[in-house]
Amino acid sequence: MAGPGLPLRVATLLTGLLECLGFAGVLFGWASLVFVFKTEHYFEELCEPEAGLLSNTTGQADCKAQDERFSLIFTLASFMNNFMTFPTGYIFDRFKTTVARLLAIFFYTSATLTIAFTSAGSAWLLFLAMPALTIGGILFLITNLQIGNLFGKHRSTIITLYNGAFDSSSAVFLIIKLLYEQDISLRASFIFLSACSVWHVGRTFLLMPRGHIPYPLPPNYSYGLCSGRGSRKEEKKTAEPENRELQSSECLSPKGESSGPGQQQKLRSFWSYAFSRRFAWHMVWLSVIQLWHYLFIGTLNSLLTNLAGRDRTQVSTYTNAFAITQFFGVLCAPWNGLLMDRLRQRYQKEAKRTGSSAAAAALSSAVPSLALTSLLCLGFALCASVPVLPLQYVTFLLQVISRSFLYGGNAAFLTLAFPSEHFGKLFGLVMALSAIVSLLQFPIFTLIKGPLQNNPLYVNVVLLLATLLTFVHPFLVYRECQAWKENPSKP
């Protein structure tokens, strides 16, 4: 990694981190933005007359139809955040980085400008703007994840760091809420976000590759401002044979090179991985944990309103506390990647010494991460199910740690468990399938608000049982790795 390209790579890393931190996952600060929208009387016409009269006092959030409308917007936006990663992942794989980033900038700028010029009378435009905002954000994340390839052994740490920054970007809506309370209009804040597109464009052409960053890196690899025609040809030529992490010389022993899965990966198509048991259980693991997080974020304003006895001041205080804890996702996520990197290096050294499968050793490093993420989600879900307002501070803390581990671990697992030439498509597919499951959050919210009369006990019990199911995934991966170590020729 040392050499004349190091300053450029560090600049790419830091600006990518800033991009993910400031723009990629802002949707998940939805609770802060809902507070502002309610103050601006968005969808207030759906409320009962008596609720409208109380809108400036304690009854502002006490409107079932209004809450359902905001929940529906978040459901659609979070669905698009995941579902569109499959076609956008294909675009990234097929048309490379520059095209994917220009598409991201188009969606993001269109969305921020639309939100900037909406009002209570045109609040329906949020149904278009919020999904577009999330599509742009997820494309920013996908194109930045490859930056981990520039830093070799620290690859998983950087991938999880970027996913943590994605989580932390939800604090942007808290900043907008605080500025709003200081008389900075919603329009001014979103026009500023739109103007930042100039920075995104500059970064696309100066600090990012035209194509993909291969792994492992070929000698004298260059990109961005420093890349020329020759380097792009070299990248194209080396990306195919060298883009498989498990075949790098630092990872595989001679035995692993001749009998490991690397050669088998050449013969296997994308769909053979998509229909594998490993991928299916990973999809279950991600979908269940993600549903908990989406349901919690999408209904947080309503939950806090009920627990606080409709005290608007308390709702604002807890909303701010939640958004502040989200910012620390960028500090939590790298620990997951660091754990995986350290375990992978240790297991691969043992594999090299014993002559066992280095690929299985690398995959084994993901097992503790998968199990720990499930455990964190279980703790978060238990706290969220207890209707005690002060306990929600603990819920917020566990939620941000669990969520930062979830998405960082998801991306890192896919890079370890499957060939990297299929990463964009597999990442997109698992997010798209989990998005379909995430659509359950709206009927669940309607069920709680309607037949269950604001008592989520039965829903929480069912979801807690489903959370226990996620522990099957790390167990099966562990069993598979053990079998693989004993019989390296087994696919």
From TrEMBL:
Residues 232-247 have a biased composition (Basic and acidic residues). One of its GO terms (molecular function) is xenobiotic transmembrane transporter activity. The keyword Acetylation does not apply. It is found in: Membrane. Residues 232-264 are annotated as: Disordered. InterPro entries: MFS, MFS_trans_sf, SLC43A3. The chain crosses the membrane at residues 12-37, 70-92, 99-117, 123-147, 159-180, 279-297, 317-339, 360-387, 393-414, 426-445, 457-478. One of its GO terms (biological process) is hypoxanthine transport. Keywords: Membrane, Transmembrane, Transmembrane helix. It is a multi-pass membrane protein. Its main location: membrane. It comes from the Eukaryota. One of its GO terms (cellular component) is basolateral plasma membrane. The keyword Transmembrane helix applies. This is Solute carrier family 43 member 3. It comes from Sciurus vulgaris (Eurasian red squirrel).
